[in-house]
Specification:
Elements (H helix, E strand, L loop, with lengths): L5 H18 L4 H5 L9 H21 L9 H9 L4 H19 L4 H11 L11 H26 L18
């Protein structure tokens, strides 16, 4: 293991552990609730994360490109992924475990080379080691979205918010 990657491996593992905590004790109704009819629900977000996690694992395990456009092959994977919350959470966890495990066998130079390859079809400039932390940043963004949806779900039912209900930096009204 390349000790230079210890921090990014730790970041990925910590991000995953925090993400799992946001999903704890979720009911089916909560996973499928939408704050607005046109809004995503948690079930849809988990499906999205599961699909993209597979792309990250394919990139890190086999050097595949990250999809930059929806080709027929990409659409086939998307269409083959059901809207099944429990199954997608289990598969997402397995994919994330594989991602972290694969990271432990890599070197910084491999990551730099393969990040450039994996994202070569994406416009703009990318960090040299993007493949090592892109998934964690993506997961953390959706973690905040899921926590917000769960808080809104509870508040619409007159219940106390689940995440940061007593944070003094938020107004009480």
């Amino acid at each position: 293991m390349d000790e230079q990657l210890d921090v990014v491996i730790e970041m990925n593992a910590w991000t995953w552990d925090r993400f799992k905590n946001v999903l704890a004790d979720m009911t089916e109704d909560e996973a499928n609730w939408r704050p607005l009819p046109q809004a995503n629900n948690i079930n849809v977000i988990i499906r999205h994360l599961r699909i993209e996690a597979e792309w990250h694992v394919d990139s890190i395990e086999r050097g595949e490109l990250m999809p930059a456009e929806v080709t027929p092959k990409v659409q086939e994977l998307i269409d083959a992924t059901p809207l099944d919350f429990d199954k997608n959470v289990r598969e997402l966890e397995e994919l994330y475990r594989r991602f972290i495990s694969a990271m432990k066998a890599l070197t910084r130079s491999w990551l730099s080379e393969h990040s450039a390859k994996a994202y070569r079809e994406f416009p703009g400039r990318h960090p040299a080691h993007l493949l090592s932390f892109h998934q964690a940043v993506h997961l953390a963004g959706h973690q905040g979205q899921i926590a917000t949806i769960r808080n809104l779900y509870r508040k619409t039912r007159g219940e106390r918010a689940l995440f940061f209900p007593d944070n003094p930096t938020f107004p009480k009204s």
